[in-house]
Amino acid sequence: MNEGLRLDDLAAPLRALRLLAADFGHLAAPAVRVTPIYPERLELAFHDDLAGFEGWRDALGIAPDAVTYGTQSGGRTRVLWLSVEYAGAELELVAYAPIPAGALVGAAA
Questions:
Q1: How far apart are CA 108 and CA 75, in angstroms?
Q2: Are 69 and 29 in contact (CB under 8 A)?
Q3: For strand 89-98 and strand 31-35, is the pairing parallel, antiparallel, or unpaired?
Q4: Which of 13, 46, 47, 105 has CB atoms 3.0–4.6 Å from 53's, for a disulfide?
Q5: Which of the 8 DSSP states describes residue 100?
Q6: One digit per residue, pLDDT tens: the chain, 109 residues?
Q7: What residues contact 42, with CB distance under 8 A and at least 6 apart?
Q8: Of 70, 50, 54, nearest to 62 (Cα)?
Q9: Apex CA 18: angle with CA 17 and CA 24, to 5°?
Q10: CB-facing half-sphere around the CA of 47: CA atoms within 13 A
């Protein structure tokens, strides 16, 4: 952990969050994370809400090909991820959603 950091040291992600709330308050509410471990980063996470992630991606004007797709939990969870600079902070958008059981069965066949 970054010892000795003050709240002022998190100004970039907090400023970005303030701007996002003012400009995009109508969008889906994400889980928000600001941490002294990564003092320049603001993470917006969507759990079981790929549409929320896509709404934010589109509103921010980020191209679909900037999104990284992956899976975790043995292929049972899809993950969408992107990172861009926004208002002087590193903005990460991430979404997690279960892969339907039928899709898993079909994929194994």
A1: 11
A2: no
A3: unpaired
A4: 46
A5: P
A6: 567 899 999 999 999 999 999 999 999 999 999 999 999 999 999 999 999 999 999 999 999 999 999 988 888 899 999 999 999 999 999 999 998 876 655 454 4
A7: 12, 13, 14, 16, 17, 32, 33, 34, 86, 89, 90, 91, 92
A8: 54
A9: 80
A10: 2
